Automatic annotation (TrEMBL):
SUPFAM superfamilies hit by this protein: F-box domain (SSF81383)
Organism annotation: Solanum tuberosum (Potato)
Coiled coil: none
InterPro entries according to UniProt: F-box-assoc_dom_typ3, F-box-assoc_interact_dom, F-box-like_dom_sf
Biased composition (Basic and acidic residues): 7-16
UniProt biased composition (Basic residues): 17-30
Protein name per UniProt: F-box associated beta-propeller type 3 domain-containing protein
Domain of life (superkingdom): Eukaryota
PANTHER family: BNAA05G37150D PROTEIN-RELATED (PTHR31111), F-BOX ASSOCIATED DOMAIN-CONTAINING PROTEIN (PTHR31111:SF136)
Region of interest: Disordered: 1-36
Length: 412
């Protein structure tokens, strides 16, 4: 009896221990399922439709998107995809464009240049984006074009591409050597239909093999050629080779190109004996050039020849009349085949004084932009109203409309 009672007591004492072991195992299993449940949450997020994920990511800032790229390979591939980059930059350009100013400092003893990029939003807030020193003293006088988050800089013998938001700068592949030193007319564009960047470069062939260089007055249109570079890889820049265009330009371009509805436009030098400046057009789809007659206004000389993109149409400001009457007429090209122009806007700028306004006019979201006494002035064509943003000092010139981009130029 005592032995049986002891066995029963021992069994009774051992039962709670089994329950304790079971409860501990259950807790481990439950905690394990909770811990494992944290990971499927990411899978649930990734199982969302692309439209929902795109909508969520488009609400993030550039800094937040850069951090999200480090958390998941799937997210990284999604964020750096060409379709998402296109949507993100299009939205930021429409909602909150900025002004990008460039300060160029030449360091003569070191034969280098320092570039300093600063952006200003429409409220006047400034942001230091990028400062870099490059072993090229010609960058101190380079021409700048800002297109869809990237900056293209052109010198006598080099082309550079820069993303100030990512603090990256790289040199583009070497292009064909021109027979005329200092001939640096080019064009930089972003084609929305193809989601790729294009760089257009003009150069003159040598009239003879014995000449190392030639004065522009000795060159003819028959010596002029054009080549195009395509930049189409995202998440690490990739260049195609320069492609020489078979079609020859019919006239000499003289300005920086402007993209309008998948075509690039330049003002040209006066046609001999006619003394008329024509506009050169290049269609990226057909790779054909076309010479367009200017509007019925005296577009002559070297001052105030600019082309702009206004609501997807080619716009030419009449700088000649503006200097005479302080009234800025805007001519719109309706048909480039028949050279049909219409004067759609006449803006009175008498209160500003034409001598105090720079000859550089730009457009952004149906607004005309110009520089006046240390301020950047925006004129809304719909509301017919002006607003001003404090500009930087005269050392920060030129400037352009800018939005931050995630496009990576890769390793410099």
């Amino acid at each position: 009896m005592k032995a049986s009672r002891r066995k029963n007591i021992d069994k009774g004492e051992q039962q709670p221990k089994k329950k304790m072991k079971i409860s501990v195992q259950q807790r481990k299993r439950s905690s394990g399922t909770e811990e494992e449940g944290n990971y499927p949450n990411i899978d649930y997020f990734n199982k969302l439709s692309d439209d929902v994920i795109t909508s969520l990511f488009l609400r993030c800032t550039l800094k937040s998107l850069s951090m999200l790229r480090c958390t998941s390979k799937l997210w990284n591939n999604f964020i750096i995809s060409s379709s998402f980059l296109h949507l993100h930059l299009t939205q930021s350009t429409q909602n909150g464009p900025k002004l990008l100013f460039l300060e160029r400092i030449s360091l003569h003893p070191a034969k280098s240049s320092t570039l300093r990029f600063i952006s200003i939003d429409m409220d006047g807030s400034r942001e230091e984006l990028y400062t870099v020193t490059v072993p090229d003293d010609q960058l101190a006088c380079a021409r700048m074009q800002v297109r869809f988050g990237l900056v293209c800089l052109s010198t006598d013998c080099r082309l550079y591409l820069c993303n100030p938001a990512q603090q990256q700068l790289c040199e583009l592949p070497e292009y064909s050597l021109s027979a005329t030193p200092g001939y640096w007319h080019f064009g930089f564009a972003y084609l929305h239909s193809r989601k790729e960047y294009k760089v257009v470069h003009f150069f003159y062939t040598f009239p003879s093999m014995t000449e190392r260089w030639c004065h522009r007055g000795k060159l003819r249109v028959s010596h002029l050629k054009c080549e195009v570079l395509t930049i189409n890889k995202v998440g690490g820049i990739s260049f195609n080779r320069w492609k020489e265009i078979a079609d020859r330009p019919p006239c000499h371009p003289r300005s920086v190109g402007q993209l309008v509805n998948e075509c690039m436009y330049w003002w040209t030098y006066c046609v001999p004996r006619a003394r008329v400046n024509q506009i050169l057009s290049f269609d990226f789809e057909t790779e054909k050039f076309l010479a367009i007659s200017p509007p019925p206004s005296p577009f002559e000389g070297d001052v105030g020849l600019f082309v702009m993109d206004l609501k997807g149409m080619l716009c030419v400001p009449d700088a000649a009349r503006f200097h005479r009457s302080s009234i800025l007429d805007l001519w719109i090209l309706k048909d480039k085949i028949s050279c049909t122009w219409v004067k759609e806007y006449s803006i009175r700028l008498i209160d500003f004084g034409f001598k105090k306004i720079t000859n550089v006019f730009m457009t952004c979201n149906e607004e005309i932009i110009f520089h006046h006494l240390g301020k950047v002035v925006f004129y809304d064509l719909k509301r017919k109203s002006f607003r001003e943003v404090e500009a930087l000092s005269h050392r920060f010139f030129p400037y352009g409309v800018y939005s931050k981009s995630l496009f990576s130029l890769g390793t410099i």
